[in-house]
């Protein structure tokens, strides 16, 4: 078994009800989380190779630090380091931005002209969020079958390829946030494709490389909305053990440089009791607010943007 798979299996075996269970009552990490990078609580050893390299303000009034990874023992600013170009922006998205993104992911980004895993199956998915929230007790939730939405150039998951022409526009909201996040770490991005992944409480994403785009000159920018997750940042092969990273709602990850083609994935999705207090005034009713907050507590969305 390769080193990446070993770490994936460790987290699959680890039974946790919420993200807060990563820490015991005394505040100490559980044994399985000994190597977990939590930028809110770095260990002394991790602080030697997880560097705060600056700060930024992606959302108005919300300044966040910028952390860069490097291989333990490697010198800083080494472009040949397998983790060069990988950045974590914890809490980059404030509560209002998270709420707005959540609403768009649930009510617009899964609708035509964008496409989802359900559209090729000919299922009646129009207004899927409205159908989910208005269904009678005991009826199946159509959102349970929604796993991803593709925007811009619609990624073909079966053939691992992008088409020659876009199927829809990448929404301006995603464009602006992605550009701001890339700029904050000194990178440029021209986004022609975006994926929204809808994770359930038991969802994972196997280790993979984003290596089917026409160019790798632009970074991948990933927003986390909703539950926490254990993100694995691997190397250029799965023989290299991945770094385990705790991501929370509002965190942003940027993968450029050498890290752009590294293996990565989600080893565990963790519901949390500490979601931000989403403002109710954005932009509709209390009923919509409650339905979004309830969904995010158990079914997060992660939006990935990159060039096609």
From TrEMBL:
GO MF terms on file?
Answer: broad specificity oxidative DNA demethylase activity; ferrous iron binding; oxidative RNA demethylase activity
Q: A GO CC term?
A: cytoplasm
- Please tell me whether the keyword Membrane is annotated for this protein: no
Protein name, as recorded: Alpha-ketoglutarate-dependent dioxygenase AlkB-like domain-containing protein
Q: List the keywords (alphabetical).
A: Dioxygenase, Iron, Metal-binding, Oxidoreductase
Per the entry, which co-factors are needed? Fe(2+)
Q: How is the cofactor bound?
A: Binds 1 Fe(2+) ion per subunit.
Q: Which PANTHER family match?
A: ALKYLATED DNA REPAIR PROTEIN ALKB-RELATED (PTHR16557), ALPHA-KETOGLUTARATE-DEPENDENT DIOXYGENASE ALKB (PTHR16557:SF11)
Q: Where is the Alpha-ketoglutarate-dependent dioxygenase AlkB-like domain?
A: 88-273
* Stored Gene3D superfamilies: Alpha-ketoglutarate-dependent dioxygenase AlkB-like
Output the lineage of the source organism: Eukaryota, Sar, Stramenopiles, Oomycota, Saprolegniomycetes
The record lists Fe cation as bound by 208, 210, 264
GO BP, one annotated term: oxidative RNA demethylation
């Amino acid at each position: 078994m390769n080193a990446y798979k070993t770490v994936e299996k460790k987290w699959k075996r680890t039974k946790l009800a919420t993200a807060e269970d990563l820490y015991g009552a005394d505040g100490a990490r559980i044994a399985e989380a000994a190597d977990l990078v939590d930028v809110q609580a770095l260990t002394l050893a991790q602080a030697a190779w997880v560097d705060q390299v600056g700060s930024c303000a992606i959302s108005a009034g919300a300044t966040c630090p910028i952390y860069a990874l490097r291989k333990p023992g490697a010198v800083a600013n080494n472009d040949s380091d397998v983790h060069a170009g990988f950045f974590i922006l914890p809490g980059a998205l404030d509560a209002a931005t998270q709420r707005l993104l959540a609403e768009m992911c649930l009510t617009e980004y899964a609708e035509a002209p964008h496409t989802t895993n359900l559209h090729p199956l000919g299922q009646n998915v129009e207004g899927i969020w409205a159908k989910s929230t208005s269904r009678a007790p005991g009826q199946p939730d159509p959102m349970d079958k929604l796993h991803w939405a593709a925007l811009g150039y619609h990624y073909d998951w079966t053939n691992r390829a992008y088409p020659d022409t876009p199927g829809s526009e990448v929404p301006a909201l995603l464009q602006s946030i992605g550009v701001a996040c890339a700029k904050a770490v000194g990178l440029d991005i021209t986004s022609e494709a975006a994926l929204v992944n809808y994770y359930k409480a038991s969802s994972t994403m196997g280790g993979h490389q984003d290596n089917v785009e026409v160019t790798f000159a632009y970074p991948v920018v990933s927003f986390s909305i909703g539950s926490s997750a254990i993100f694995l940042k691997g190397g250029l092969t799965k023989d290299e053990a991945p770094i385990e990273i705790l991501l929370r709602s509002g965190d942003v990850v940027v993968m450029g440089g050498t890290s752009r083609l590294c293996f990565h994935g989600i080893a565990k999705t963790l519901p949390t009791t500490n979601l931000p207090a989403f403002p109710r005034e954005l932009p509709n009713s209390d009923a919509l607010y409650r339905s979004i907050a309830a969904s995010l507590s158990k079914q997060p969305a992660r939006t990935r943007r990159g060039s096609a």
